[in-house]
């Protein structure tokens, strides 16, 4: 009787997040620190167990810095090892997959961080708990979803009903929510060859290199074995010919390792997770339907080449989080949420194309894959009021660089759910703005910014820039009051 009564009483939250991958957990963390009540439901019985999205790009590391998890991520992960090409059981030489870069004061995270996806999710889940967020509801599959002018009603497979102001589909490339909304995806097969991905234990293999084995004489595809930092595991990837179905069992993985490398089958002592997939690129025709938003793989599916999928997904959540918080807790107009699709769809399309070109060998992993150059210059939320700027100058819409500030870093000042009004090399008198919504910082001339005033959004992008405060108050009022 009591259990039935609980099930008949709708659970009410501000935001329902469907899916407990990196996208859903990032969004849940961001909402928790804004005082937004979010519920994450996950149809699986536990967090995803595999390494799949293992590359954390510099821009995503900056997001993790803001969320308070960068130290945990750096402690658990490590740099990508130098590639080692093998042929005929002999080392042929090194292969560097990434262009070498050095950290600078304005970009403190210069290189990709190797971190298994399962570990990233554990770190995000722990942070959600620290922030006071509600624990993930596992074994909770969505069975139905309806919406009206006031909110969304979701039905779960265990009989429970959830009522939320908004819902976010973060439930992967085969999104149940996207299907329920009738939103199509447009895309293509990037490569018809099946790829086996597995987390394996191979004690006989050294962990100093990312081991790469050239295709065999009969044309069988590549095989690569990458050590995963902080674990005893390697991630194995093996390409197969079109029309074949990779065997994901221990015996199947052992067979392909023995056939394509100098290792013996028994050198593979354990397969901890394995998957068979076909690389494809696809994007949802829209990222919003009323009070429901698509994020991560539910909105865009990437080839794993270049490590863009998870990173683009995390940044979807980072973009949407502050906007939901502003509407639900800050009195911002609901129209602010329209800018989520406006800003993220072009970025996702850009990264989708990049992933595809890298997979096909048409472009090298370089500055674009680090995602520090992405921005929102063309967004309706962007206002650049200065004129005569030099080519290459920081503009409204760009990522706000880090730098020294009062014995700390600018990223320390930006960290949190607030806007930051940064004045650089000017003593301009500042208008009175809500101290809780806008924090103010003054620094002397600093080349990455030049000179002027910069209103930095909660997601670390310059929303407004000017030589003085003309138009600043109107801009901020438009975002938070809609008029």
What does this structure look like?
It is a single chain. The protein has 3 domains: 2-77 and 115-188 and 281-370, FAD/NAD(P)-binding domain (3-Layer(bba) Sandwich); 195-278, 2-Layer Sandwich (Alpha-Beta Plaits); 383-481, Glutaredoxin. Strands 1, 2, 8, 9, 10, 11, 19 and 20 form an 8-stranded mixed sheet that branches. The protein has 12 helices and 28 strands. With 483 residues, the protein is α+β, with helices and mostly antiparallel strands.
SSE layout and pairing:
Layout: H1 2-8, E1 11-18, H2 22-32, E2 38-42, E3 55-56, H3 58-67, H4 70-76, E4 78-79, E5 83-87, E6 90-95, E7 113-114, H5 117-130, E8 137-138, E9 142-147, E10 152-156, E11 161-169, H6 176-181, E12 185-189, E13 195-201, E14 210-213, E15 223-227, E16 234-239, H7 250-260, E17 270-277, E18 280-284, E19 288-289, E20 292-294, E21 300-301, H8 309-329, H9 338-359, H10 367-370, E22 383-384, E23 404-405, E24 408-409, H11 410-414, E25 419-424, E26 438-443, E27 452-456, E28 462-466, H12 472-481
Parallel strand pairs: 1-2, 1-11, 2-8, 5-14, 11-20, 22-28, 25-26
Antiparallel strand pairs: 3-7, 4-7, 5-6, 9-10, 10-11, 12-18, 13-16, 13-17, 14-15, 15-16, 18-21, 19-20, 23-24, 25-27, 27-28
């Amino acid at each position: 009787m009591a259990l039935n009564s609980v099930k008949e009483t709708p659970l009410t939250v501000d935001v329902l997040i469907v899916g407990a991958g990196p996208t859903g957990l990032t969004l849940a963390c961001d909402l928790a620190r804004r005082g937004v009540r979010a519920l994450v439901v996950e149809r699986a019985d536990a967090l995803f167990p595999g390494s799949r999205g293992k590359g954390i790009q510099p821009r995503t590391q900056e997001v993790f810095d803001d969320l308070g998890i960068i130290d945990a991520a750096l402690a658990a992960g490590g740099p990508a090892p130098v590639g080692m090409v093998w042929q005929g059981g002999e080392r042929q030489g090194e292969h560097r997959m990434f262009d070498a870069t050095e950290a600078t004061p304005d970009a403190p995270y210069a290189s990709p961080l190797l971190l298994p996806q399962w570990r990233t999710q554990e770190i995000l889940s722990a942070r959600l708990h620290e922030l006071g967020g509600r624990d993930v509801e596992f074994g909770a599959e969505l069975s139905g979803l309806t919406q009206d002018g006031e909110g969304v009603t979701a039905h779960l497979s265990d009989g429970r009903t959830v009522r939320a102001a908004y819902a976010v589909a973060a439930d992967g490339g085969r999104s149940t929510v996207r299907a329920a909304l009738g939103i199509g995806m447009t895309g293509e097969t990037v490569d018809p060859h099946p790829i086996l991905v597995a987390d394996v234990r191979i004690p006989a293999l050294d962990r100093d290199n990312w081991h790469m084995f050239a295709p065999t004489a009969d044309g069988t595809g590549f095989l690569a074995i990458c050590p995963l930092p902080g674990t005893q595991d390697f991630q194995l990837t093996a390409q197969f010919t079109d029309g074949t179905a990779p065997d994901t069992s221990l015996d199947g993985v052992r067979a392909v390792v023995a056939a394509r490398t100098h290792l013996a089958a028994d050198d593979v002592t354990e397969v901890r997770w394995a998957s068979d997939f076909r690389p494809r690129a696809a994007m949802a025709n829209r990222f919003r339907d009323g009070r429901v938003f698509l994020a991560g793989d539910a909105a865009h599916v990437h080839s794993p080449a270049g490590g863009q999928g998870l990173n683009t997904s995390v940044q979807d959540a980072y973009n949407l989080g502050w906007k939901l918080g502003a509407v639900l807790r800050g009195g911002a107009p609901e129209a602010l949420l329209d800018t989520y699709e406006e800003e993220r769809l072009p970025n996702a399309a850009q990264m989708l194309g990049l992933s595809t070109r890298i997979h096909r060998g048409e472009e090298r992993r370089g500055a674009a894959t680090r995602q520090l150059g992405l921005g929102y210059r063309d967004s309706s939320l962007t206002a650049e009021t200065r004129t005569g700027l030099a080519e290459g100058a920081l503009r409204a819409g760009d990522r706000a660089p880090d730098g020294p500030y009062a014995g700390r870093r600018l990223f320390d000042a930006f960290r949190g759910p607030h806007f930051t009004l940064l004045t650089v090399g000017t003593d301009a008198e500042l208008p009175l703005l809500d101290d809780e919504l806008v924090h103010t910082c003054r620094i002397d001339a600093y080349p990455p910014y030049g000179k002027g005033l910069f209103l930095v959004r909660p997601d670390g992008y310059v929303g407004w820039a000017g030589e003085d405060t003309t138009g600043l108050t109107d801009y901020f009022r438009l975002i938070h009051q809609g008029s």
